[in-house]
From TrEMBL:
Keyword Transport included in the entry's annotation: yes
PANTHER family per record: ABC TRANSPORTER ATP-BINDING PROTEIN, HEMIN IMPORT ATP-BINDING PROTEIN HMUV
Entry annotated with the keyword Transmembrane helix: no
Family annotation (PROSITE patterns): ABC_TRANSPORTER_2
Alphabetically ordered keywords of this record: ATP-binding, Nucleotide-binding, Transport
Residue ranges constituting the ABC transporter domain according to the UniProt record: 3-235
Xref: InterPro entries: AAA+_ATPase, ABC_transporter-like_ATP-bd, P-loop_NTPase
Gene3D superfamilies reported in the protein's UniProt record: P-loop containing nucleotide triphosphate hydrolases (3.40.50.300)
Record's protein name: ABC transporter ATP-binding protein
């Protein structure tokens, strides 16, 4: 397994936010992390990249316990794309993507041809190479998200974590971003709110409620009418789409 989470718990003060979570993600696969607001999705992502410290349990990347990995080694391996990230500094698109090379460079090392190649490839993969010289502040929301993903790809990670990457984007950019993520070929965990998008683009799903995994598996096994009602509190009709072959959810009015 690329990512293995074994009975992991996390608390803020006396409030348990992640409670005994166990999950695995196969190499190169996309796991969609679903759940209501405040269910613990973002906290779990931060635990994986060690921005938070587990109270109990073990998180492994391959055979390595993340608690034993040097910070620099973990930064070279795991990239994290947060919901919102902005700056008032006048940076070009290329400047932002260049930041992804930071974990690979020592304090005294100079910028090299390999760094340029990594940045160019990352920009190309997200379709932003023609915007490389454009100021970050002039980009649309969808374009900024593409640049954030390019920055993470320039980091050359083996695991990529994304927290609501489609938040506040229009439907075209939501589809573009998730299609891009699904085709990267690296291990991804992506927290999402939209169940239909999760069904379309994720290999497997895990549903978190009140800090605990209440369902996990293939999208067609997880996205049931019963689960949607219990976890999200809405009535739904679930059927296989004649268009893309994945499950499709229709929400029903009371």
């Amino acid at each position: 397994m690329s990512i293995s989470i074994d009975e992991v718990s996390f608390a803020a003060g006396n409030i348990v936010i992640v409670n005994g979570v166990s999950l695995t993600v196969e190499k190169g696969k996309v796991l969609g992390l679903l759940g209501p607001n405040g269910s613990g999705k973002s906290s779990l992502l931060r635990l994986i990249c060690r921005l938070r410290r587990v109270r109990s349990g073990i998180i492994r990347l391959g055979d390595d316990d993340i608690s034993s990995l040097p910070r620099a080694a973990l930064a070279r391996r795991v990239a994290f794309v947060e919901q919102q990230s902005t700056t008032d500094t006048q940076l070009t698109v290329r400047d932002v993507v260049r930041l992804g090379r930071t974990p690979h460079r020592g304090l005294l090392s100079s910028w090299g041809a390999g760094d340029d190649a990594a940045v160019d490839e990352a920009l190309s993969r997200v379709g932003m190479q023609e915007r490389a010289g454009q100021l970050w502040q002039t980009l649309s929301g969808g374009e900024r998200q593409r640049v954030h993903i390019a920055r993470s790809l320039a980091q050359a990670p083996s695991e990529l974590l994304l927290d609501e990457p489609t938040n506040h984007l229009d439907i075209q950019h939501q589809l573009d971003i998730l299609s891009l993520i699904s085709k990267l070929g690296i291990t991804c965990i992506v927290a999402l709110h939209d169940l239909n998008l999760a069904a379309m683009f994720c290999d497997r799903l895990a549903v978190i409620q009140k800090g605990e995994v209440v369902a996990s598996g293939a999208p067609e096994d997880v996205l049931t009418e019963d689960m949607i009602g219990r976890v999200f509190g809405v009535r739904a009709h679930v059927q296989k789409s004649a268009v893309h072959g994945r499950h499709h959810i229709q929400y029903l009015m009371d």
